[in-house]
């Protein structure tokens, strides 16, 4: 195989590789941060050179192999960036070195440094403390504080700085560091002292000579003898206690508690002598004690909070404490406390040998409630204690409906509304409460029903009580907390849309002839009874619970030709409430036979709660006319008639005029049929028409026959206009009376235009 690479190709590849390496070197070059005290010695650059001038008061050594910190204090905390490289040739790919000037390290006397754990304070003694920084790390959080204005006395300087709460009371813990003023805390920071020596982080650790605690057991801790076996005493600072001595009783430190056994008497307190870890002291008053004696109350009475989790962040919170049989008889005389406050005893009841005490604790804010009982009278020693977690009561998010599934957004005053709300978890449940003067509450068939009181108005938030039904009576109905629904609802009358056919009717006539029109039908009523029709609203059929029915009545009247009568249109609102007698609305403006009246009644949208049986509207149609035939007169202007008669009097009659009587049938809407019987008087051949022989065709004749009529305007009205086609037998009166030659009888056919329709129906 022959190699295809040339020397030029290899050179190009090498150049590209050098470029890539240089590029990668430039990208991976990362910044460094050095910090050193002002006035300190020059820092060696460790085989590197500075590319360019130094800034920020830093001075480059003459040989370029070191750099000296600024000499004045005004540079403390300020940073300056310089470029450094392995040599001058590599300055094109130089990295950044950040230089920070700090104050000199403070001289701290480790034998007099004291950590006050419960005060979250560190007390320092030494020299050069002004501006000194103390950093701390505790429970995943870091922070710092600095000495701003140290106090000076003959022994030197003294300063207190704040530290985190919850620092361990362990002298060997590594949670505190000292740093000079102006220093930074980051992983890439390298710290130097004034002699240009690198300072390791461990060298900056602070180990207080004394650790002072103000409490050894949490507030409210007691020895509960009611559980049998070994009692437990919780420790506030487990790492501070090395051992414990309880005298006749046995004590042993185990983890974060002291296990106590062998306490058989009913003394009011147990004396516990604690031996603290080296360099840890307990402070009471101004005295520091390495072996403090702690009095822990002994609780002979077994107690528990029977009402479960206590509701917090609401006013007037209550809870129920169960006192076991050993002390149940004295439950009524006990005094109760929580968080330093005396609690009100609201009731005591006995059940199954135990006593239950209802206590008012007002407002609870913390995550836990501790209730302590003491003896009544002069002896105020604690005899029992109960604890419970707290919880936030969820908002009920109640919904109201009339039982149909559709929710309503108001509290009705005339009928019951079904209330539903979210179920709570745990022992308790939410119960809807009545509000005096606003609304009432009752239960029926498992549903909670709500009704606003008559006269109530405005807005109201539903009120709920937290109850625990598993408590003995009467505490199972005790309101342990009160919470309001966040939604404010208006209070007003509610309306259920009733079936319109049950309360609205259309009646025509009177007395024995009264006729009820069925909804949806088109009824025919005699034109003579046009003023005897009315819409009847039966208020007496409404129940008071139905509320106001907001209806809309619409009446439209159209003429027989289909054109509306604008003056007859009615659109009005009707509000129906329960009453003793019905209301009527008479139909008006029926002006002509076969006027078509449409009556529509509907619910006004949005004014009533919908139900499944609700009808959106109800409608009737009434035609005021009952005739089947019509006899009417009209004027006719035939054009282009053709007469068939004797040979001297046959031909085209170009202009004619006459009056006709016409009879035809009527449909259910009062429209005439197209074919009818006709008869009348015609003046024919008015344009001096003549036949082929020159004889005059002008005559006055009586005609009778059939006609086909098509209305083109104002159908069935007095001003009707139509086009027609006629076929008539004629008798020429003028020819017969004038004794003119020829027969007076003939047959005429042809079209015409007729205007008018004046007649009667039968």
Largest sheet: 8 strands, mixed
> Which percent range fits the helix content?
under 10%
Total E-strand runs: 61
Mean pLDDT: 86
How much of the residues is beta strand, in percent?
Answer: over 45%
CA-based shape:
elongated
Return the structural class. mainly beta
- The total count of helices amounts to 3
Q: CA-to-CA gap between the ends?
A: 123 Å
Radius of gyration: 56 Å
Enumerate the spans where pLDDT stays under 50 for 5 or more consecutive residues.
18-29
Write up what this structure looks like.
The protein is mainly beta and 762 residues long. The protein has three helices and 61 strands. Strands 8, 9, 10, 13, 14, 17, 24 and 25 form an eight-stranded mixed β-sheet that branches. Strands 54-57-58-59-60-61 form a six-stranded antiparallel barrel. β13 and β14 (156-162) form a beta hairpin. The longest helix is centred in the N-terminal third of the chain and has 22 residues, at 7-28. It is elongated, with a radius of gyration of 56 Å.
Features:
elongated, 3 helices, six-stranded antiparallel beta barrel, eight-stranded mixed β-sheet, mainly beta, 61 strands, 762 residues
